[in-house]
Amino acid sequence: LLLWISGSLTPQEIRDKIMDVNSDFQKKMVEYLESLCAGEFLTGQKSDVSEKVHSASEMSDYHDPTFTLPKPPPPPCNDKCIKCSCAEKHTSWWQEFKDTVDDLLLRSNQHVHTFDESGNNTSYCANSKGECKHRFPRDTYEQTLVDPKTGALNLKKGEAWMNTITPMLTYLL
Q1: Residue 35: which H helix or E strand, with range?
Q2: CA 138 to CA 38: how far, in whole Å?
Q3: What are 24-74's pLDDT values in tens digits?
Q4: Helix, strand, or coil here: 82?
Q5: What's the rounded Cα separation, in Å, for the pair 104 and 108?
Q6: How confident is the model at residue 45, as a pLDDT?
Q7: Could you tell me the superkingdom of the organism this chain comes from (predicted)?
Q8: Among 30, 33, 45, 115, whose CB has the most other CB atoms within 10 angstroms?
């Protein structure tokens, strides 16, 4: 079922605007998609995140985010607030949000393969030829690219062994 809103751009018009490299539409569409999707950890490379999670998990006040509910953000600051700690609380919450998302990604969004002594892929995802049915490792891109021939968007992706995610949904679910 495809529902189209009257007066909005058609799929062809969207494609044409995305393929125009000088278009403000293309720039804004890419910015919007990049604000929603991530193909990498939020705070660094996998090795850095792994080390940070390992260190944090040894602390007595650490709680595994796969067993806890997410913490809500602090309430918004009101107009009468002067030199309060609201900005600091929000900055702290956003950092905790990123750390929690990275912890969750490290625990639940890493694709791994196992191999036998002969080097054959023996993972559950291997087909009869030993190839990964889930198409891992995935291509990585340092920046979002628009294919000039097809208009296809290849979003920025830094981790070949991780699916593209939406950080806010990862945090909430």
Answers
A1: helix 24-36
A2: 14
A3: 999 999 999 999 999 999 999 999 999 999 999 999 999 999 999 999 999
A4: coil
A5: 6
A6: 95
A7: Eukaryota
A8: 30
**Within a domain: 39:** yes
pLDDT score for 2: 65
What token pair was written down for 111? Answer: 């694709």
Residues 6 or more apart in contact with residue 37 via CB below 8 angstroms: 155, 164, 165, 166
Peptide bond just before 74 cis, omega within 30 deg: no
Residue 15: inside a domain: yes
For residue 53, the surrounding DSSP H or E stretch is helix 46-57
Query: Residue 104's domain spans which residues?
Result: 11-58+88-172
SS3 153: strand
Q: Structure pTM?
A: 0.83
With tokens 């889930």, the residue in question is 134
